[in-house]
Design brief:
Rossmann fold; five-stranded parallel beta sheet; about 170 residues; alpha/beta
């Protein structure tokens, strides 16, 4: 793949995550009963950034963890189905799933299924840094950092520590 454009640099990513954090607090009327679940891998790092932003804004540490959705994907052959474990109970909580890119909706569907496999939350919301379109399922994000319409031949590359040595969003072809 060849880099076509830098869509967001570090400051733009940071601003988008701060805005998403404020929107989450506004929609939920604060941090009460709020929990964040990052979809592995980069969604986990983004969830941590949002949790830290919420702490800076509200002075409240919201529970934050990550979720492995691979056993729930309908397009992956995972031979070892294991029980989903989360670092906090989801019963009656407002769960915000966090991911880097929303594309077909299959990852979000799998994450919702994984959450319901361990309990029944009061609600599930979805936050993404990038929404690139091309949905195959009726899934939409409640919080979006940036909408980037793409062709199917293009890809979005999100770079974020600790997985990468920089913070950026790039369009690749």
């Amino acid at each position: 793949m060849v880099e076509k454009a830098v869509i967001m640099e570090e400051n733009a990513v940071r601003r988008a995550l701060v805005r998403i954090s404020h929107e989450i607090l506004e929609k939920n009327k604060g941090a009460a009963s709020l929990c964040l679940l990052g979809i592995r891998s980069r969604g986990s790092a983004l969830a941590e950034f949002i949790a830290n932003n919420i702490f800076d804004i509200e002075g409240v540490r919201v529970p934050c963890g990550d979720i492995d959705i691979r056993p729930y994907r309908d397009d992956l052959k995972v031979h070892e189905l294991r029980e989903t474990e989360l670092p906090f109970p989801v019963e009656g909580k407002k769960i915000v799933l966090v991911d880097d890119v929303l594309y077909t909706g299959r990852t979000a569907r799998a994450a919702i299924e994984a959450v319901f496999s361990v309990g029944r939350p009061a609600m599930i919301q979805f936050a993404v840094l990038i929404d690139r379109g091309h949905r195959e399922l009726p899934i939409r994000a409640d919080y979006v950092g940036k909408n980037i319409p793409t062709s199917r031949s293009e890809q979005i590359s999100v770079k974020i520590p600790p997985f990468d040595d920089e913070t950026s969003v790039r369009l690749m072809e």
